[in-house]
Amino acid sequence: MNITKHMESIFLAAAVIAGATSFASAADADATRLALSAPVTQTVIHHAKMQVVVVAAKRLSAAEKASL
Fold this sequence. Notes:
Elements: H1 7-26, H2 29-37, H3 62-67
């Protein structure tokens, strides 16, 4: 059986299966109910200082890099 002759039907079958599973997972009522019941809160802090990370380290020499 030559698979190159049947690539179009394999693609169409994969597309149909992917479409059916996307509709089946989109209709999940529990996830929709959970998403709608969760309260959305947002906290805004005005005049907060931006966090800065400072890395203080010396560069490795060529000999030290080679030993790693």
